[in-house]
Amino acid sequence: MRARSTRFRYLLLAAVIVAPACRQETGRLSAARQQALGSEGLLHRADNLRFRYTYREGRHGGGWEDRLASIIVTKQSVLIHKNEKVGLEITPRSRRYYEVTRDGARVRVSAGSGQSAESWSFVPPDDADAWAQDIRAAIRGHSSTDTLAPVRRRER
User: Fold this and answer.
1) pLDDT one-digit tens code per residue, 14-34
2) Beta-strand relationship, 118-122 and 42-55
3) CA distances from 118 to 1, 84, 152 (A)
4) Which has the least CB within 10 A, 3, 46, 55, 81?
5) For residues 57 and 119, what is the distance between their CA atoms, to the nearest angstrom?
């Protein structure tokens, strides 16, 4: 009986030590990428957030999934990524249709239209209103009125 209890304690200790190492880190970027984003004027950064990724919303074959990712908002761009893998990137060269909405504490960034439409929504770690305003400003900073969606805001 005592041997079983001791084994259980060792297994529990091992799990406690190993568990933090299993946590996924999503914020790693190359030094060059970090420097480029930093030169644009960093406004917000949050790592390891749970995003709701939605594709082909309201269409046949559409769906959603929760993804762990990071977000960086600068004065000129928005980057949602998992380390070097890009989920959504809005830059001065982007030409897609964008829309930013708020639903309570959740911020939603929609991109594209029709079959290519997708959205990424998340709960920011701090002031959701500031995040939404800064993402809108980054989009407006480089989009013409022809390619920029009307920015809607829904709050509850």
Assistant:
1) 554 544 445 689 999 999 999
2) antiparallel
3) 56, 20, 16
4) 3
5) 9
